Amino acid sequence: MRYIAQENTIQLFEVEDFKPEQTFGCGQCFRWDIQPDGSWFGIAGGEALRLCSTPEGAVFHCTEEKFRQVWARYFDCGRDYAEIRRSLSEDSFGSRAAAFGAGIRILRQDPWETLCTFIFSQCNNIARIKGIVERFCSRFGAPFEADGRMCHAFPEPAEVALLEPEMLEPLRAGYRAEYIVRAARAVVSGEVDFDELSRLPTAELIRQLTQLRGVGEKVAHCTALFGFGKTDAFPIDVWIRRALSRYYADGFDPSIYGDSAGIVQQYMFHYIRNGIEGRQSADGIPD
DNA sequence: GGGCAGGCATCGA
DNA sequence: TCGATGCCTGCC
């Protein structure tokens, strides 16, 4: 991926697969919003960024140093997504989903933030998850100013560990609040060590994540994929399950996609949820 | 008001 | 090992 660094902007060009609206809209992140001028503004961990989509790629409003240290990794800039899409040509459903989702990138998010947001996600829709996450950050996250506005970092485990679940009531997260506080305490106690976890093979990482209360297979796979960059993780929710049973009736094994399984999953998920209306069957899955 | 949602834990067969 | 049920909340 090539870029031109100017004063406080980074312009990506010759990018085949970099579409903010696809990337931010496919349900992997919850702190990015489109602005009235059409740009995107988001906060990841303790960093904020404004991003503009252009026909050639995208413009990042940040220094080259920030781009190299933070955002290039966050946006998974080293991966050739077009090549992954091409590799799906023999897979009828997978290739249709990938064509529809071209431009999606798997964001490499902070493990703690990812774990929390996907705990919040259970039995919830994106709008509600975003609301819960924003209330969580504005109440318990460190304030900072960026792009001329007040922002809040994602709350640190050490802060959250000191809270009682009842203190999260204003979030309106319901029974999930207790899971968050318990997870924070597990991090602070050292029972959960993200650096150690990041060195584990995916299956073992997922096994350990599911030891946490409120973290099942689905949340663990999402955390592995979006928080640890484990692109062989393959989260299966009710929608993916429905699609797999229809299109892979003879059985399905995500390991056929190897290290791209999680990326294929995102293409499929986005296609299932946002595929062209009018071409859907009764269960809402595109034909 | 009852049903349901991008899930999990618990309980009983 | 599997199916049923409750859980907070918000929307239909």
Show the helix and strand layout.
Blueprint: E1 2-6, E2 9-13, H1 20-25, E3 32-34, E4 40-44, E5 47-54, E6 57-61, H2 64-74, H3 81-86, H4 92-100, H5 111-121, H6 126-140, E7 143-146, E8 149-152, H7 157-161, H8 176-189, H9 194-198, H10 202-209, H11 217-227, H12 238-247, H13 261-274
Antiparallel strand pairs: 1-2, 2-6, 3-4, 4-5, 5-6, 7-8
This protein binds a DNA duplex (13 and 12 nucleotides) through residues 27, 118-119, 121-126, 128-129, 132, 172-177, 179, 213-219, 222, 235, 237-240, 269, 273.
What does it look like?
This protein has helices at residues 20-25, 64-74, 81-86, 92-100, 111-121, 126-140, 157-161, 176-189, 194-198, 202-209, 217-227, 238-247, 261-274, and strands at residues 2-6, 9-13, 32-34, 40-44, 47-54, 57-61, 143-146, 149-152. The protein is an alpha+beta fold and 287 residues long. A hairpin with a 2-residue loop joins strand 4 and strand 5. The longest helix is centred in the middle third of the chain and has 15 residues, at 126-140. The chain is globular, with a radius of gyration of 19 Å. The two termini are 34 Å apart. The mean pLDDT is 94. The chain binds a DNA duplex (13 and 12 nucleotides) through residues 27, 118-119, 121-126, 128-129, 132, 172-177, 179, 213-219, 222, 235, 237-240, 269, 273.
